[in-house]
Amino acid sequence: MKIIDGQAPQALTTVFFLAFVFIADAEGGLTSREVERLNKLLGDPRWVDDELARAALAELGTHYTSLWKAYDAGSMTCDRQSLSTALTRALSGVDASGGASVRSALRNFAQRIAGPSSPILSRLGAGAATRARQTALLEFEQLLSAIHVASEPLAAAPETAVASRPGVIENGAAARDLSHWPAAQLEFSRENIWQRGRTRVRCVRVTPETHDVKTFTFVTDPPRIISYKPGQFITLEAPIDGKIIRRSYTISSSPSRPYTLTITVKRAHNSTVSKWLHENVAPGRELHIFGPNGTFSCFHGPAQKLLFIAAGSGITPIMSMLRWLSDTASPADVVLINNVRTPNDIIFERELYLIGSKLGDTLRLGIVPAQVQAGQVWNGLTGHFDERLLSHFAPDFLEREVYICGPAGYMETVKGLLDRAGYPTHRFHQESFGAAPAEPAIAMPSVDPRPEPTPSPKPKPQPAPSPIADADTACEVVFSKTGKTISCKPNDFILEIAEEQGMELANSCRAGACGTCRVTKIEGTVLMDDQTALTEEDIQSGMVVLCIGRAQGRVVLDA
User: Fold this and answer.
1) 8-18 burial by CB neighbour count: b if 16+ within 10 A, else e?
2) Nearest-5° Cα angle at 252, 210 to 509
3) DSSP state of 308
4) Rounded CA gap, 498 and 509, in Å?
5) How many Å separate Cα 304 from the centre of its chain?
6) Is the dihedral of CA 245, 532, 194, 251 positive or negative?
7) Rounded to whole angstroms, how far apart are CA atoms 242 and 434?
8) Whole-angstrom Cα distance, residue 220 to residue 103?
9) What does the radius of gyration of the chain's CA atoms come to, in whole angstroms?
10) Cα–Cα distance for residue pair 217/206, rounded to 1 Å
11) Contact 35, 96 (CB under 8 A)
């Protein structure tokens, strides 16, 4: 083998390290078992024949700790682009004959890393890699096949463009590496569809919508076709001050554009996560999300006539549905009433008018500011939501399927008006922010949108009222599965005091609306004010939600 570039061994060491992390950590959360398996491969290199690959693996064994520290500190990235760059550098440093041998060693290494980490699973026949690792292995194979080795002859190509190798389009004598353009390689197949569960995403764009609202655009990493229902939501993990804080946000994009996913977030003065997103998330930032979840979607109930009603950032799920209806050429007759504070607070303003021009007579767009301040120009209606406004934009509202999202007070106002008009409740759909009630009419929400769809406006049953213990009464919460016991006061929220003690409990809305933090109560009394996440059956079975749950005395939880 002839080494053209003297840096080839070091470059190949980097490739082996990145390949290990890219595949073994595909699910997120690399374990010590994976590192142990890597050490075994490095300690017994008889599985590889190539001399250069053996030298690179020996270097990896020596420098693994420093490489990992660089990766953990963020000075070394491990994504598709960085892996492609490292492969290009390593393979360009060897001649054609050596390149084939190095490729073989890399493929062998990747396949060994992708397999099951447990010898017991292998003996039981569970030898297939997980879906995430299979995908990562396939992507690595595509990158490896796409890199052209120095002095390696290019195969003759037909006159027309043919995708003969994954990740490469060949046209005549030119081969184009598409590794930097993931969407061009994604096919609509089951293995390429975004699966529910914890998923890594990368921010690729931040778009200012108003003075205090931004849209964050994400792609999945590794790339996936993103599938969900218009109006659904995701739960995002924000690493803030050494803790993971979870918040739910409606997806504002449309599944008809399946390569990216967007959330649109208003920066609220009393919301830690929204401020963190606005100040810290920029293109390149990676996060983890869960989802999609929710049933607040016109997808589930096709109707010829729709009425969307939104206030403030409640426009986000409505916008997802409106984009989807426009993209899919729906023949539905749509009315949108969008209440905002001032003309400067119109989220998606230009796109709303653009969609209106596309849909023509099938969309009646009613954007209504509550007030117009000095210096602002506005030629349309102003005011709060009332019978006059409803009759002006949707005189036939009794014939329409209604979808509403906004602050609690706003939705109560709209629902009360519709009830008095005799609107059929089974055609009324609302999405709750899960926040404390806001002022009626068009008041903006005081917290981030934290949606858990409420398909029916019928209030969910509450547990029978119990007397609140004296404020100084000593209480305790026992987590039976972990054996952890924490002391508290009757007015302390269980989730908050558990987090103060270093416990990590699944949660999202923190307002009793989504049910992410629900657990079964084995013993004791837990008070929950204004919860909407539990059904009567849940309550009867002892289910409680920790975010608004307060222990009264001794409580034992199945958690």
Assistant:
1) bbbbbbbbbbb
2) 95
3) E
4) 16
5) 31
6) negative
7) 26
8) 27
9) 28
10) 6
11) no
Tens digits of residue pLDDT in 274-300: 999 999 999 999 999 987 888 889 987
Cα separation, 310 vs 4, whole angstroms: 64
Backbone angles phi, psi at 327, to 5 degrees: -65, -30
Segment 64-82, tens digit of pLDDT = 888 888 877 777 888 887 8
Distance from C-alpha of 37 to C-alpha of 48, rounded to nearest angstrom = 15
Distance between alpha carbon 279 and the CA centroid of its chain, in Å? Answer: 18
pLDDT for the residue 99: 67
Q: What is the pTM of this model?
A: 0.54
The position carrying tokens 């398996």 is: 37
- b/e map of 206-245 (b: 16 or more CB within 10 Å)? eeebbebbbbbbbbbbbbbbbebbbbbbbbbbbeeeeeeb
* Contact of 425 with 456, CB cutoff 8 Å: yes
Tally of CA atoms within 13 A in the half-sphere of 332 that contains its CB:
26
Classify 26 as helix, strand or coil. coil
Is the backbone peptide bond immediately before 182 cis, with ω within 30 degrees of 0? Answer: no
What tokens were used for 495? 């989730």
Average predicted confidence (pLDDT) for the chain: 79
**Neighbour order of strands in the sheet with 401-405:** 363-369, 333-340, 305-311, 401-405, 428-432, 452-454
